[in-house]
Hints:
The structure is a homohexamer.
Chain A: E1 2-15, H1 24-31, E2 40-53, H2 64-79, E3 82-83, H3 84-87, H4 98-110, E4 118-126, E5 129-133
Parallel strand pairs in A: 1-3
Antiparallel strand pairs in A: 1-2, 2-4, 4-5
Amino acid sequence: MRMKVCRRAHFNAAHRLYRKDWSDEQNVAIFGKCSNPNYHGHNYELIVGVTGEVDPETGFVIDLKKLKDYIKSEIEEAFDHKNLNEEVVEFKELNPTAENIAIVIWKKLRKKIDTTYDIEVTLYETPRNFVVYNGE
Amino acid sequence: MRMKVCRRAHFNAAHRLYRKDWSDEQNVAIFGKCSNPNYHGHNYELIVGVTGEVDPETGFVIDLKKLKDYIKSEIEEAFDHKNLNEEVVEFKELNPTAENIAIVIWKKLRKKIDTTYDIEVTLYETPRNFVVYNGE
Amino acid sequence: MRMKVCRRAHFNAAHRLYRKDWSDEQNVAIFGKCSNPNYHGHNYELIVGVTGEVDPETGFVIDLKKLKDYIKSEIEEAFDHKNLNEEVVEFKELNPTAENIAIVIWKKLRKKIDTTYDIEVTLYETPRNFVVYNGE
Amino acid sequence: MRMKVCRRAHFNAAHRLYRKDWSDEQNVAIFGKCSNPNYHGHNYELIVGVTGEVDPETGFVIDLKKLKDYIKSEIEEAFDHKNLNEEVVEFKELNPTAENIAIVIWKKLRKKIDTTYDIEVTLYETPRNFVVYNGE
Amino acid sequence: MRMKVCRRAHFNAAHRLYRKDWSDEQNVAIFGKCSNPNYHGHNYELIVGVTGEVDPETGFVIDLKKLKDYIKSEIEEAFDHKNLNEEVVEFKELNPTAENIAIVIWKKLRKKIDTTYDIEVTLYETPRNFVVYNGE
Amino acid sequence: MRMKVCRRAHFNAAHRLYRKDWSDEQNVAIFGKCSNPNYHGHNYELIVGVTGEVDPETGFVIDLKKLKDYIKSEIEEAFDHKNLNEEVVEFKELNPTAENIAIVIWKKLRKKIDTTYDIEVTLYETPRNFVVYNGE
Lengths: 136, 136, 136, 136, 136, 136
């Protein structure tokens, strides 16, 4: 029996949407007020879903304590109370849109979680905007 | 990389579940108090999910401002503070169940959004009842 | 020891904001799209707070089953799936604004609940608009 | 047109994670404080999704009143205010993890709901941990 | 300037409502299914509000890290994943109703937090039932 | 009859907690990771409560459209997608703690709303931390 187990986490961060190789005008045209050079920020709410077989002995798909630990070490400690553009190495050259943040989170967790499991990352940038990425 | 981007919106409307070609008894038997001839209403909460490739240049699946504008012009302005049965043309002959409203929303957005994108409509009639439609 | 005990409930209804003794122009000027003659509607979320002494024998401020029953008989059965203007006697001559609905709910519960208790009614017309009335 | 219709419900229960055939040390090693012999408990929030064709006559995928009744009789009355390990027969020999509870719920509803429908069970053990099972 | 600062926390626990000095019939008559001898349980959601002057130097009413630590040591570690009746000394002879749990939480925090501050405890037993206690 | 009417709004912003006249060590000691010189950010959720008499003619305490407009012009346009420390004049010399932001919001709205009304500002910095200020 195969099932998805989900764990919610969160981090607060500043970011700015822009491309270094674009002019200010181009950045404003595409990213609007999200390209504010002084940054703005969000309370990111994260749901990590892990799909796998239910272990008939424990009744667990995955040890949630381990999943919590991976989320804590890989995501929360790396992103929380940070400026994503300036302080998180993955975004030095990558625009920190919700889409790209979700991909980075997915890739970081993918390295930690056995490949017999599928991973799905749901990232709320605000309660009104969110993205879902499953490695497709 | 393919991903779903979601945007939440809302509208308030009155409706009544019934078929004009049925007797009152039949309408009450099937639709219960939802067939009240004087109408009742809901705060509909809508989540529109759009799935597509992440543009490597912008880091966006879709320009959310455009998605917001489509939702505003096609759905919110058409449905908000309306009587769905009496004032929304799509429901003149179509019973405004949550299912049918979701299909109408999906079709209206389908005309506006490039077909390289998949569209999923989640419609909460109440916090306890909702439907999900993806054009299947 | 005095404490507030709260119970959440909900009902769905249609309504229209308007005064019979005003012209259509005046109604639209003041109530905007809420005065739509064909009605619109809401999922009203209700929180009833009852403040009183904790009974040292039971550890209860009030028997929640009784409070639930009062809310059910007085409010939910009277308002749910109704057209407030047309079908609820209290609003025959009273504009069903969130404020007035909260006052009506408060008065109906006040008759049922012993006056040693204070009553507070919180009524969400939408997740974004709500009122709080305590009989002041 | 095929669509998912969802209904939210809830029940409160006590449980303990452990295997009778394991030592206390083994149970604590794997299940941690969740194996407390005196039990702990949760407000389980349940979302049942039923996927099927929209009936062109009614505009319903399924009669929600029937779905509510099945959830009430099969799940709420069986689990609410119960000790899952001691009082719910399905868990006499089955560890009541969120995963196993979701499977039991799915199987109980599967017997009631016509097999032309797909069923999906989402079970929140807490607002931060949840599982999704669709019978795979 | 005086202001309320609030912090949300949570714990999961089993409990049973009953009085040892009452017969089973009396317990069932008053506490219904909440008096189940095998216990049931809840995800308690707790909001602690602390009201005091804003320190003009820091802009803080209270150091939230300290408040979090008090809640963790006094409440979460004492109550989480416990059987309140059997394992929490304050409820050995006190019925663990939401009201009494809120009073116990208030008293425990009152000993830790300077009396220049007012304390308010909001305790959700379920998303639908909650109590508010401020030491009155 | 006197009643509180509440309106929810939101804005996203970057900020940093620190005092210019303190050393970095002092700032870190008191404000921890919130003093990150590169900023972090939040989705601030705001509830503005306005308490006044219900106008017997309209059934309104206040015209919500006006309240929405004040919140939009005074708060959302001034704070949304901004760096509070760098771009909002009120925080040039004032540490943008949740407490201070709530006071600034209260003062800005106080100038717009007739003094026959009481104003209460609830500001969520995160879903877990919030403050309530009423001008005391």
